[in-house]
Automatic annotation (TrEMBL):
Mg(2+) 2 binds at D71. GO terms for cellular component: cytoplasm. The keyword Plastid does not apply. Its cofactor is Mg(2+). It comes from Novosphingobium piscinae. The lineage of its organism: Bacteria, Pseudomonadati, Pseudomonadota, Alphaproteobacteria, Sphingomonadales. Catalyzes the hydrolysis of inorganic pyrophosphate (PPi) forming two phosphate ions. Substrate binds at K30, R44, Y56, Y142. This is Inorganic pyrophosphatase. One of its GO terms (biological process) is phosphate-containing compound metabolic process. The gene is ppa. Its EC number is 3.6.1.1.
């Protein structure tokens, strides 16, 4: 896959492309795309036997403060195949800190043109509370059994905060390419 050929989205920050690495309910295996080759590598097998609470991937042409593209969860009733590109809308962000520093997780739903089931979801408060609890629980505990790894779950941000983070990450990626 030529990741560099996939745009950040149709209308960022309102509509994004998310490249899926791990499907919802997937085995406790963390996959990551190698940005240079486009190959999907096994990053690690989670020591804590937990399944991903949402489809998990990243937004191309963004750069987080940790040096990776922005992480994104896509809430959906179905698992998406790793390597698929999903048009999605950001509705929230979960702020985390881990052994490498700040680590935001965008929470998105499929764009209305992809699947209108989520057309009335504009904020995290539009989701069932259990969905948010599952996401928070997953990220609180998924590194529990890995030596020298840790995570602290911080505050949730709304759709506007998620969009601000996206715009900053797009600019950071542009600046890094120009450097």
């Amino acid at each position: 896959m030529r990741i560099d050929m996939i745009p950040v989205g149709k209308n960022p920050p309102d509509s994004l492309n998310v490249i899926i690495e791990v499907p919802v309910g997937g085995e406790p295996v963390k996959y990551e795309f190698d940005k240079a080759s486009g190959a999907l590598f096994v990053d690690r097998i989670l020591h804590t036997p937990m399944r991903y609470p949402a489809n998990y991937g990243f937004v191309p042409h963004t750069l987080s403060p940790d040096g990776d593209p922005l992480d994104a969860l896509v809430i959906a009733r179905s698992p998406f195949v790793p390597g698929s590109v999903v048009r999605a809308r950001p509705i929230a962000v979960l702020n985390l800190e881990d052994e490498h520093g700040g680590d935001e997780k965008l929470v998105c739903v499929p764009d209305d043109s992809t699947f209108p089931y989520y057309q009335d979801v504009g904020e995290k408060s539009d989701l069932p509370e259990i969905v948010l609890q599952q996401i928070e629980h997953f990220f609180t505990h998924y590194k529990d059994l890995e030596a020298e790894k840790w995570v602290r779950v911080g505050a949730w941000g709304d759709a506007d905060e998620a969009k601000r983070i996206i715009l900053e990450a797009i600019e950071r990626a542009k600046d890094a390419k120009g450097a």
